[in-house]
Amino acid sequence: MDLTEQFILLQAPNPAAAENGRKLSKKGSFSAHHRTEDGTLYWAECAGSGKNPYRVSIDFTNRDAPTCRCSCPSRQFPCKHALGLMFEILGAKPFETADIPQDIADKRAKQAARAAKKEGAAGEPPKPKKPNAAARKKKLARQLEGLDMAEKMVDELLTSGLGTLAGSSAQTFDKLAKELGSSYLTGPQTAFTRVALAVRAVQKDPAQADAAYNQALRLMVALRSTIKKGRVFLEGKLEAGDFSAEDSALFEALGGVWTLEELGAIGSVRENAKLVQLSFDVSLDQAKKEYVERGWWLDVDSGEIWQTLNLRPLKALKYVKGEDSRFGLLEVPALYIYPGEGDRRVRWESASTRPLTAREQAALSRLAQPGVAEAAKLVKGKIKNTLAPKFLAALLPVGSIGRIGEDYVLEDPAGARIALRDRAEDGVDHACTERLGMLPRKIPAGSALFGLMFYDGRDKALCLHPCSVVTPDEILRLQY
Amino acid sequence: MNLQPLYDVKERLEYAAIAGVSLLGEDFRLQRAAEGLKPLAAASPVFGKIDGGLTKLLAAPPEQRAGLLLDVLALVDAVAYTQAKTGVEGELKPLPAGGGTYHQISYGQINPLLTALTTTGGGRMEIIQSAWENHPEFFEDYRVLPAVAAGLGDSYGEIAELNAKILKQVGPSVVPVLKQGFDPAGKKEMARRVEVIAAVEGAEAAPWLREVLPDAKKDVRAAVITALGMAAENAALLLDLAKSERGANRDAALEALAKQDGAEIAAFWAQELEAHSQSVKFLQPSNADWASDLVARRLWDRMEEILARKESLTNPAVIELRQWFSAALGKSSPSMLDFWRWTDARLADIDHLRGEKEQRLGFGREVAALLLESLCAAGPGPLCGLCLELWERHPKEPRYLSHAVVAALMTRSAAEVYDTFSPYVLTIKPLLGGEQKKAFHNAVLRALGRVCRKEDGTYCIDNVWPTAQPIDSQWFKRLTRAVWKTTGETRQYAQYAAGESIDQFDMILMRLANTGDEETRRQLIPYLRERMLETGLPYSYSRFLLQLGGGPRGVLGDTMVKRAGAHYIYDTWNLMSEASKTLPSGEVADLLEEVLRSNAIRKEDAALAQRVIPWTVEQLRAGQPFPEWDDWWKMR
To answer: A50, A411, B73, B305: which could form a disulfide with A399 (CB 3.0–4.6 Å)?
Structure first.
């Protein structure tokens, strides 16, 4: 079994579970190691706190998504015992060959039957869902009412001034923002919460006033745009009696949530995509009270850059599996793409990983933009849209990277330059630029720099927040 | 195109949004900025659109202003974005290669480590230690290294020390990271950086240390001076520093000079010890012959003078004398050997030295004990010969017997050690001279007490020096038949066994025993069962027996009776749970019945014992596993 530590960590619900599994393996808690002749099933006993050991097994019938089973009462899945057993396999512990235990054979058979049923169902045309037109109409009407309220909130806030958002007025504002959630407008609700958080940040630390007010104003501008465009969008749907999800960024801006089925229905799906992760980061979204685990991916066929977002609400942290950095090439049978412009969000149901060949690795940096100027044009085109995030992920070709005074600067092979700096909004835990000065080796010719291009209002310049260096031999990640 | 009017408008609109649009009519600066935009509006349609928006905004009734302001601001933003520049003027200086390496480490692996290294709070030590044990390569990673370096200033001292230890082991790749941002006037963190650099680079760090020395302050200065001691080329500088520095920095210079060699250094130390006798403590780690000779000569002179004065010693004088003897530990130059021979010759006089209250100091015994410590610090070498020589000179006294046993263990064959020294462990009670013979017995046991068996089957002294051969297994037969089953030493607390204290004698036996050796087990199992009954300590001895593959059946109940009413039911469960891991269920059931029959459980637990023990016996006989403590406790 060609198991890697990286693979085990990806199975773990969180790093602590993996670490606990490793400890179990290290202290020799496992006994009665067995495996089937074909190496698809491993099982053993693991000493727990009770008298009787837990019976743990890992079924590698699907090598990319093994089935872990354990008799322990843990609600984490896979539990530390299953992860520990994977470490036993990784550590090349001796496993005695034996026949598959009957209980697992039965479970396997049931699983296979379920899969066959699902596969059979996949061939059939899906049953058309009967839309509840009255309910959807009611929802649209409620959303329109909500937009009126949101507009009123914007007006009132700007009439009295953003700086007045404190004390009891802030509490009233929070209350009103929550009501937007009841109007199915979670997008504007979150935007208002972000505005309130930004203004509160000024009150806590007046030194941050410029940045915080700037952020709050950009949110207000986007909010105004969402309200205006949203109203037209919703009224149009109401009039047309069309209640389905639509290929529009407005759908999400208003708080809509896409399902894979809906993305498939609008044809936003690509088959047999090959992706390589360029960077990974995690941040806490204070407004939505959730962790955002973001991966940046390069499509090795088209050169497009995608992002994955794994959202883990703080309240349900234990129950939502954490994402982690991925290395190697990910082969995705069906890549679902969210509506939007540039670095769009993607998702998939299943994927398999394999190492990149030297040739594939060498080709990655060649997928970079032709130069700084071309990338800048794309960024400007995107960020001037009021609804779009004010950054764009970009892979830029490296002529050289160096310093001019205290600033880090990238010069593309044609001699065009761009300043490299950290995006203040991402916080100090996302700081990467200084790490360029610590890179253990020189950046070879033919490399590219991946990062987020953004507008810095302080000197009215487009800058790049560097995330990783893509050389012909490897991807040097500046963060994770 | 000069875009300043656009940015002025943007700034005024933003101010208006923060201050409130109700004041917009009075904002003459916004109006002035709008005026400034007019020429641009004439030149370009997009600016014309902004101008139109501004005119509308300024003329709008208050209730419409908010929306209009945001609309204009959206337009201004969009233009500002499209006009953003990208170039940076100036000469581009290439980046230097940093320290460390790059490893493919996932977020899940690196983030907990970085968090532990860079934040505060509990649980961090464990994370760092675990990462170090499982993935030492993570610490070379260029993203982790700076955090480890910064962690040298961790507010939790143990983490800072652990980081220092890690960096020392990572090796030369840490040096550029540590030198980057080094502040010679910094605090403890910077001092630790110096220690790490010196440990990693050794003598090669000397030029950098000399470079930073002039600006180094406080802790950092002391660390730099100490580190200078690693290179011979710094001898002259250190000699100067010993003259110019004061306090902790001078101590650091002395510590550094103790690592130096040469006639000039020896002369310095001769002078230094003449002027400041207490400086001898710095010479303790030095094993150089000149240091050994110097300490021996001075100590010898000092002792002769003390003995000649025939006066009682003041407390400070006693402390200073002990400092000198401590400095002699591990030193073995010919002069030192002669000094020990001289102390042996004058031991009676030394033993008569008195303190300031005319009390006997017992210095003779202390000096002999120091020689044993010195031997154990030095390991195989000339001190072994000396100790055997002194023992051969005084075979009728036990004074040097421990020394001789240790020396022999380090240098002679196992059989020879056994043949020479086992007769001092008597197996037949002597009719005459019992006390003297017991002293010999204790001396041999004291030496054996310093030996332990390692997992790989080898034996070592004080966990440092290997014995010449594994100890002879005949010792077990001899020791188990010894007349005195005690060392005369303090009893050692055995932590896992209900607070019982075990004689050091039996602890030594268990430390030396190869539990897998049949012959050893044959000797020890009956012995330990007997000892269990003699001492009335069931828990420790039962565990010893279990370790050897034996069991306490037949003696457990009788042993417990010796302290009837003092046994907690939990201790019984704990022992039986342990026994159930190695003994068959039937034997555990027999043991439980013995416990019940003994009626020795304390009265508070007696009723519970009457319920749980028969039930457990029944369970075990029915092939069920030994129950959990909870199962017993629930039956109370």
So the answer is: A411
Q: Which residue has the tokens 């412009």?
A: A341
Looking at the DSSP bridge assignments, the partners of residue A285 are A290
In degrees rounded to 5, what are phi and psi of residue A92?
Answer: 55, 40
Q: Is the peptide bond before A78 cis (omega within 30 degrees of 0)?
A: yes
CB under 8 Å to B565, separation ≥6 — which residues?
B600, B601, B602, B603
User: Which range in A129-143, B91-105, B376-390 is most confidently predicted, on average pLDDT?
Assistant: B376-390
What tens digit of pLDDT does each residue of B342-389 get?
Answer: 999 998 899 888 888 888 888 888 999 999 999 999 999 999 999 999
Identify the domain containing residue A175 by its residue range: 133-253
Cβ contact A440–B143 (<8 Å): no
ipTM: 0.85
Question: B134 to chain A: nearest residue by CA?
Answer: A22
pLDDT tens, residue by residue, B552-592: 999 999 999 999 988 999 899 999 998 998 899 999 999 99
Q: Percent of chain B at pLDDT above 70? A: 98
Give A380's contacts in chain B (Cβ within 8 Å).
Answer: 81-82, 84
Taking the C-alpha atoms of residue B294 and residue B274, their distance in angstroms, rounded to an integer, is 11
Report the residue of A22, A215, A221 to disrupt the B interface, i.e. the one with the largest count of B CBs within 10 Å: A221
- Verify whether the Cβ–Cβ distance B106 to A324 is below 8 Å: yes
Pick among B10, B13, B70, B577 to test the A interface (most A CBs inside 10 A): B70
pLDDT score at B432:
83
Pairing type for strands B93-94 and A400-404 reads antiparallel
DSSP B141: B
pLDDT band at A246 (very low <50, low <70, confident <90, very high): low
Structural domains for chain B: 4-82 (no CATH), 139-280 (1.25.10.10), 289-480 (no CATH), 511-633 (no CATH)
Nearest chain A residue (CA) to B15: A161
Q: Nearest Cα to B441, choosing from B474, B487, B400?
A: B487
Say whether both A389 and A295 belong to one domain: no
Q: How many domains does chain A have?
A: 4
pLDDT at A211: 82
CB atoms within 10 A of CB B53: 21
Identify whether residues A33 and A103 lie together within a single domain: yes
Domain finish residue from A123, A150, A183: A123
CA distance A434 to chain B (A): 10
**pTM value > 0.90:** no
The token pair at B227 is 């580190």
Separation between Cα atoms, residue B138 and residue B131, nearest integer Å: 8
Tell whether A259 is covered by a domain: no
Residue of B nearest to A280 (CA): B107
Least confident of A117-126, A267-276, B206-215: A117-126
Work out how many CB contacts closer than 8 A connect A with B: 201
CB A353 within 8 A of CB A6: no
Taking contacts as CB-CB distances below 8 angstroms, the residues of chain B near A52 are 625
Which amino acid is located at B287 in the chain? N
**Which are the contacts of B18, defined by CB distance < 8 A and separation ≥ 6?**
A161, A162, A163, A213, A217
Region A19-44 average pLDDT: 89
* Residue of chain B nearest A431, judged by CA positions: B143
Task: Report CB contact under 8 Å: A218, B94.
Answer: no
